[in-house]
Amino acid sequence: MEYKLTYNKYKEALMSGKFCGLKCNKCGGYTVPPKKVCMECSSEDMDVVELSARGEIKTYTVIRVPPEGFDAPYIVSMVELDEGPWVMGNIVDLDPDKATMDLIGKRVSIGHKAVKGDKFSAGDGVALAFKLEG
Amino acid sequence: MREVAVVGVGMTQFGMSEKTQIEMFSEAAMDAITESNIEPRDIQALFLGNGLGDFEEGQMNLAPMCAADIGMSNVPATRFEGACASATVAMRNAYLWVASGFYDIVLVGGTEKAMAMGTPMATRTFAMGSDSRYEGFAGITFPGAFGMAVHLYSKKYGIPLQKLKEQMAMVAVKNHKNGVLNPKAQFRKEITVEKVLSGIVIADPLQLLDCCPFSDGAAALVFASVDKAKELTKKPIYIAGVGQGSAGPLYTQKDFTRIKARETAVKQSYMQAGVGPKDIDVCELHDCFTIAEILATEGLGFFEFGKGSQAVEEGKTSLNGEIPINPSGGLKAKGHPIGATGAAQAYEIVKQLREECGERQVKGAKIGMIDTLGGDLATVCNMIFRR
Fold first, then answer.
1. Distance CA B27, CA B257 (A)
2. Can you give the pLDDT at residue B73?
3. Fewer Cβ atoms within 10 Å of its own Cβ: the N or the C terminal residue of chain A?
4. Is the ipTM of this complex over 0.95?
């Protein structure tokens, strides 16, 4: 069976403001970022759905020594989506020097930011951008 | 499956090296071969761990070149890549081929020249262990992943961050103290908790001395079937159990204070060896960051989940503690040439079980373990050795 939500399709949707994932028709579970089969039950029977784009911060770090091609400091965080899966992205509306463990448990809305690629990245990419709610 | 033993070991000095990956491996390999009382032509295959040789020296297909450099030109020579666990994955495969009866004598090890890349490029290439599509563009780094693990751990177990950081610093202090006693270690200098806590921040909350260094180095071992081993050496060290587990990208692992790949792997290792955590006399494990050692001591079953940081503070993991962890100095002080690391851990455990470790000898050690982690907790491979 054809790969339902490829990285390129996921990226195109995200760049146009739609954060998409897969919902399983068998168990109802969500698979985000997309995979070939459901992360809960291994079924291939999944549909592409637009997600609520909201979630809760589970952990974070501030990168101060970056890989080649990135300018530090910046915050990387893992967010648990309201649909269940965890995703990685950047908290973009907070001064990295003000990041503390108080962030954990805070609600975020999820957008995107375009990221320039390098010679190893097979083109430009996109990262999830987390904004603190309220 | 038949029994397999280590008959010879070799290891270079770790740290910055002027030598190539091949030259370093050849030195370690010939020491292992000489110690095994064999010639290179007696060896039937090479299993080589190597992480980033392509980026370090522009060298792909390194294994045949390593084999040729020591006169093993026509035997199967294969590179194994499992990020920082590459050499242990290579060793597990080498073990399985000999245990199966297909080969009688094989060479296994790893080599790496990470310092050639410099910090920005090394940070970029090490981060290739993350999901390049769904994580890499967020600029995650390897220390960043473990920095996030610290915050998860602090929150989950209710240990205030500052307290946890002090306990993590004690891991670095202990491993540096052990490193002083290891002539092949990259760092042979004691440090203090205060010094760890005053270092520059690499990825919150990890500071410089919470992190292992980039390193050059190689290590090698000769594995033989039990019959051959008894002919070749008076001190065979037996491989009692092996295990390997995997996990998907970090986001699929959710609460990564529990490393599922390790829990899967170690169950296999203990079951095959017929032992449990209380039977292990000495352990070399994957302390790429101070928090990583704490997580590993819990995942291997030495301490309850959430109690690993306290165990360090109580001295349970020091050289004379109840379970000495990383007597070699670990990745932290001995160094971490990623493709060689697992083989260097095995080198230390074999030396420990032969009682050849001088001042850092764990007295009377009979059963030893290694544990190696690759990528964002995605590959964990461990092995149990016995006299």
1. 38
2. 86
3. C
4. yes
